[in-house]
Amino acid sequence: MSFFNRREDRHPPITDCPARPSEGCPEPPESVQDELGLLGPGHAEKDDPLLRRSLPSKPAGIDVVGISNFVTFLNNTQPYRRDLRRVEYGDERDPAMAEFLQKISPLNSADKITRPLLVVQGKNDPRVPATESEQVVAKVRKNGGPVWYVVGKNEGHGFAKKPNQDYQQAVQVMFLRRYLLGQEGG
User: Fold this and answer.
1) Residue 182: which pLDDT band, with cuts at 50, 70 and 90?
2) Which domain holds residue 118?
């Protein structure tokens, strides 16, 4: 089993992402294409062009504290972070920017996700509110896609508590065993 982790080669802020996903988004070798999962730790939303293009063709994907809609994210992230995120992603109060942010938001492509998706989110996340994960989970489920949703009720941005980290890791292993390796029961 191969696993393509996008953290090392993720894009600079979304405003710098190429207009076409094929520009600047390296593809993994063809020899492992059918064995790949896609993991989005932390700021995976910056890889959205790659995720939108690749996830429907991959056996499975994992989204960890990901932004699903840039406008709702900017409206719901903690106020102390909002202006810094506006500099990074764009100011949703500008109608033209709001339209652009809506257009590129991963939630707009969630209806194309038919492959298994594991979403991991801290309920008390001040950076990426849980509503971001809830939106994508609801949309993928509405379209019949298999979704596993793990919410750390006593966690923030990522799982910091050791028992929760262990649980997340165990769920990820079960998910990948089932959907990448085809082992029933995880």
Assistant:
1) confident
2) 4-179
